[in-house]
Amino acid sequence: NTYFRGTLLGKGGTAGGDGANAEISGYEYLEYEGYVDLTAPKGMLGTLLLDPVSIEIVGGTAAQDGNNCLNLDLGTAADCTGAITSAVGHMGVTEAGGAGAATKISEDKIEATDANIYLTAAKTIFVSGTFAGGDLALKVNRNLTLETRNAAGEDGGIDLTGAAVTVKTSGTGTITITAGTDGAGTTYAKLGPMSTANQNITV
Question: What are phi and psi of 187, to 5 degrees?
Fold first, then answer.
């Protein structure tokens, strides 16, 4: 399990150089609550890769459990609403429904990320909740890639119909949707409204 609540900077220099490509990885569970900046004023924008088992993109803010378990004072387990012996198991995993359950990433975290965004899941990517203005809108000139791998025994796919949301990029931003890249499991792609500024949408 991975819990990211910090800052990741991989920026190009003021005179040249590209933004970095960065991966925040957690197969069983990934909590993405920090800030990433992979910009490059004189070069190419970097890409942020997140790759848990399944991803739930939740409208609004604060998709995670909100408990301060990463800074848990072992003298008081109140923040984790349980005994100290169960605190580690409570650090987001039980809140998400157990190991391997969908990692929740909130709308505001995606919209604030200063990088191209590459979400790849072993099983499923889906949306839920209420999105501000009915949109999931990346920052200008950011690309969005949604991908599921779906190896044998890991059936699933991409479903963007579970909430009233239009997935949007602007400027040079593109959208790429790919389900079942491993080719062994049963997969699907259920798409809702998507919009770019005359850039490619690839499915």
Answer: -145, 170
